[in-house]
Amino acid sequence: MKRLFHLSTTSKQLDLFDKDWEQIKGFIEKNRMDGIEVGLTLDYPLEQIPAGIVEGVHLSFYPMWLDFWRQDQVKLQQLFEDEEAIKSYYGGLEPAVLIESYKKQYRRAKALGAKYMVFHVSHVLPEDSFTWQFDYTDHEVMEATLELVNAVFEAEEDGPMLLFENLWWPGLTYLNPELTQWFIEGVQYKNKGYLVDVSHLTLTNATIGNEKQAYEYIKKVITQLGETKKWIKAVHLNKALPKFYMGRSHHYLLEQYQKAKDKKQQLMILKKHINALDGHVPFDHPLAASILELMDPMYCVYETAPSSRYELAYFIKCQNEALKMMTNKND
Description:
The chain is an alpha/beta fold and 331 residues long. 47% of the residues lie in helices and 13% in strands. Keywords: Isomerase.
């Protein structure tokens, strides 16, 4: 199993290393990691990234994409002020722009020599994230995702593994074994699999308040997958204990969001809400090793949200310590 950490090519993340990839290389070696999973922005120059350190590429995610894909003009008019706003969000007015965007990202992932790519299977509207009332079922989101994915990734292509990641909104959650198997069978691209985000899976159960409860729940869900479990190739390791936040009403936040004076203020409220749910803190409990043993992944990605490179090093140390039992078994 290779251990990676997630790093985006946004200025905020690269500033942790003074935008210096030699520093990033040194950090990887010093912290005894095997490389990075990169959140690759569309216009970042690939030539700046040193060869051999990128194992995975996280593809972009449009949280509210299904109405655009279906060209539901009524809903699009409710979501966006005008056509310019639609262009700004998706890159154009026709669904083909999503296909072209992912084809471009696919080419860039291959150019970097990535071993895998990550694709979110989900759809959510901003207000629905507060109310938990959704317009679409898991099946509808997964069915539309198959349409998009099969239009982007040709069946005969032999590129990096295409790994599908779960969220706690409508789409891939792993809670329905039959649906999970149906989806992976429907992907025409041959080099495919699943990625389990530990926090995202935990967030499908609002009663979880400690690590033991998280482990028992994850064990139950993964065991119920049966043979489908073999498709799990990677894990995003971090921790969420949703009971204390998800157990309260978020209608006051929804009111703040709806009354916000502009889009920027709305975005701040939404980000604060999402970060409270999915804080990307390290899973610093020894049960982290037991969670990984359930799935036996090829890659374990430390996906955390540090404010400095020193905090990132600390987060890596925390999860390395939690996985020490697994390391000793492999020695």
